[in-house]
């Protein structure tokens, strides 16, 4: 076992009573007893959360609104107003524990220009560290040019966008009849990987080469298919013209976290595929257990240099902590 090291975690969720209504479909795929375990922890900032951090040696927690948040809200004006309120609430909670908590902004992508303005305010005025976006926004993906103001602002500010999963806009045919495959069990991985590939093939990173996307769950499977992505891109008869190979964008514009994936095998594969400079420790609290996450990273068969990078060094560098 390694010597315990400083730990920063980046995919750690909260909610509010007002926005909990949007998560009812997500909760419908998960055991009700586990949802009852999660609900009070999502609403808590000061007691259970900090106590658990203390118990397991988590130095800093970067908070974000749980999926799907406001991205399902039908009224753009109300969504914009609610996002401002959520970010103000988050900043106020962080101010009570500034050495333990940080945060990602919640954005109402229904109005991309308002979302870009809110990202500016959240970073410059509230001190938030970027934004977490819960997948598509009412069926629209981030490769759409309408969202370029958000990418432009994120690149200008030098902050990352954490792309968190959400349910597919339409239930994929290959999971119909198999609830074991719904939501976080399987559906979310291909959905989020596909969203990221749309951004690559859609030229988002050619247009905004300094943009950084964070993917949880050990990279949503993308680190393990880099060679095939390049091979099949080369053989396609019809393809969007991008400046580099698909794998180059994943290695240069994507960082990943260990959130929800506490296994040495994918960690070692990700290190070989991307390098230890692009991996960051995370938990996915309260949907995963802190004890399991910490045991995993402290016992992973990696060097202490890499462990320190993954546990805190890379996050400190990326988020200017």
Task: Write up this protein.
By secondary structure, the protein is α/β, with parallel strands linked by helices. The chain has a five-stranded parallel beta sheet with strand order 4-5-6-7-8. The chain has helices at 24-27, 32-43, 48-56, 76-96, 112-124, 148-157, 188-201, 204-207, 226-235, 246-253, 264-274, 290-299, 304-319; strands spanning 8-14, 60-65, 101-103, 131-134, 161-164, 213-215, 254-257, 279-280. The chain has one domain (8-319): TIM Barrel (Alpha-Beta Barrel), CATH 3.20.20.140. It is built from 13 helices and eight strands. The model has no long low-confidence stretch (mean pLDDT 95).
Distance between the termini: 27 Å
* Strand residue percentage: 5-15%
Number of discrete helical segments: 13
CATH topology annotation: TIM Barrel
Please write the CATH class name: Alpha Beta
* Low-confidence spans: none
Strand order, largest beta sheet: 4-5-6-7-8
Sheet with most strands: 5 strands, parallel
Count of domain modules: 1
* Structure class: alpha/beta
Shape: globular
CATH superfamily: Metal-dependent hydrolases
CATH architecture: Alpha-Beta Barrel
**Count of DSSP strands:** 8
Global Rg: 19 Å
Give the fraction of residues assigned to helices: 40-55%
Order of helices and strands: EHHHEHEHEHEHHEHHEHEHH
What is the mean pLDDT? 95
């Amino acid at each position: 076992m390694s010597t315990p090291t400083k730990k920063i975690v980046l995919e750690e969720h909260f909610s509010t009573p007002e926005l909990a209504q949007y998560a009812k479909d997500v909760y419908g795929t998960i055991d009700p007893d586990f949802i009852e375990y999660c609900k009070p922890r999502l609403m808590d900032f000061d007691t259970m959360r900090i106590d658990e951090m203390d118990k397991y040696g988590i130095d800093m927690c970067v908070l974000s609104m749980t999926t799907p948040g406001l991205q399902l809200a039908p009224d753009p004006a109300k969504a914009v107003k609610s996002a401002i309120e959520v970010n103000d609430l988050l900043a106020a909670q962080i101010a009570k524990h500034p050495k333990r908590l940080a945060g990602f902004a919640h954005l109402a992508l229904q109005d991309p220009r308002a979302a870009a303005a809110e990202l500016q305010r959240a970073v410059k005025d509230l001190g938030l560290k970027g934004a977490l976006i819960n997948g598509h926004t009412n069926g629209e993906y981030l490769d759409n040019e309408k969202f370029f103001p958000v990418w432009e602002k994120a690149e200008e500010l030098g902050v990352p966008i954490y792309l968190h999963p959400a349910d597919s806009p339409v239930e994929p045919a290959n999971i119909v009849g198999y609830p074991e495959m719904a939501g976080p069990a399987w559906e979310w991985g291909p959905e989020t990987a596909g969203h990221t590939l749309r951004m690559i093939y859609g030229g988002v990173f050619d247009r905004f080469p300094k943009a950084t996307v964070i993917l949880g769950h050990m990279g949503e499977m993308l680190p393990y298919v880099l060679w095939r992505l390049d091979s099949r891109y080369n053989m396609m008869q019809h393809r969007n013209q991008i400046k580099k190979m698909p794998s180059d964008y994943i290695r240069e514009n994507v960082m990943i976290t260990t959130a929800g994936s506490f296994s040495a095998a994918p960690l070692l594969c990700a290190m070989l595929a991307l390098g230890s400079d692009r991996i960051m420790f995370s938990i996915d609290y309260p949907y995963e257990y802190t004890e399991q996450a910490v045991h995993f990273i402290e016992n992973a068969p990696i060097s202490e240099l890499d462990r320190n990078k993954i546990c805190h060094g890379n996050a400190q560098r990326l988020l200017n902590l």
